[in-house]
Amino acid sequence: MQVPSREELARSGTLEELYGKLDPIGIAPGWAKATPSLWAEPRKNFAPAHWKYEQARGALDAAGRLINTALAERRNLILFNPAASNSYGTVRTLVAAYQMIMPGEWARSHRHTPNALRLILDSDPGTYTEVDGVKIAMEPGDVLLTPNWSSHGHGNDSRASAYWLDFLDVPLVQLLEPMFFEPAEDEKGEAANNAPPTKDSPFVFPLTDTLKRLEAAVPDPTGPFATNVQLGNPAMDTIALFMMQLAPHLRTALYRSTANNIYAVVNGTGATTVDGERFEWSRGDVIAAPAWRPHCHEAAEDALLLRVSDEPVMQRLGLLRLEEAAQPAH
Ligand SMILES: [Fe+2]
Fold first, then answer.
1. I want to staple 127 with a disulfide (CB 3.0 to 4.6 A). Which of 46, 65, 123, 308 is the partner?
2. How far apart are CA 242 and CA 250, in angstroms?
């Protein structure tokens, strides 16, 4: 189709004629949009959701027989939000995955611009992540960071398969476009690293340290965040981490936030209600509380939840809003 000139556009006799001339030059009338571009408050695009470690563990054990780390790069299971047309993100900005590495395996090193962290669920001594050449020991309850562009690979010199949860800001980086990824250049160098794994690293928050900090924290069992400590300040540019300690049978205050939150159960049992949907969880489970969904928690026994949040993104962009809401009827 011929590109209309200024004069031809100016001569348009009807709106339909004008629309017909605008379309081929990539311009649309703002007063006749097919869908609105502004709305009164955040939409419910992503759904409240729950994933169970028990199921993921079964699937990972099958995957352990069926695919090796050389082929898979990472043997992981993506927790995609069941919202319509979504097949990747757990919430809008973040993705969570269960991962397993078998005895003797090495998940080769690479680096990427997305920030990543992992919460260790089950592992024996000898399991480690190598971050920028330093082997960091992975013990259950530890939280380990691999920030933007840090090189990382995973090894397991123990005699038991190791399981953990990964959290990454990949959906955010995909949206913003600055995606870069590269495999490690010299894998022989990595394999030659015979140093024992250490916890002496700024990239790990050992559970033992976190528990000590929680003991000294101001108790707030019925506040929206329960008794909690922040890991890092924030842990990474785009992701903040908080370890929440729940007291048995006390419900936290219902609240909603423009931030997206993912909760992972470090230990204990209980339930989280997200926008009216109740999810009963146990160790290793994951709950998605997408933006602006009121939610609260109640433990059946002493419990620890790791809250993984995109709050730093919302904060820096001036988009963080948070409000407590009335408790749901029960
Ligand atoms: Fe990675």
1. 123
2. 19
CA of 183 to the centre of ligand 1 (A): 9
Kind plus residue range of the DSSP H or E element containing 107: strand 106-112
H or E segment and range at residue 58: helix 53-66
Angle in degrees, CA 238, 114, 81, rounded to 5: 80
Q: How far is the CA of 152 from the centre of ligand 1 (A)?
A: 6
**Ligand 1 centroid – CA 111 distance (Å):** 6
Per-residue model confidence as pLDDT tens digits over 68-101: 888 888 999 999 999 998 999 999 999 999 999 9
Ligand 1 centroid – CA 181 distance (Å): 9
Quote the ligand 1 centre to 114 CA distance (angstroms). 8
Residues 6+ apart with CB under 8 A from 243: 143, 210, 214, 228, 229, 231, 266, 304, 305, 306, 307
Q: Can you give the pTM of this predicted structure?
A: 0.95
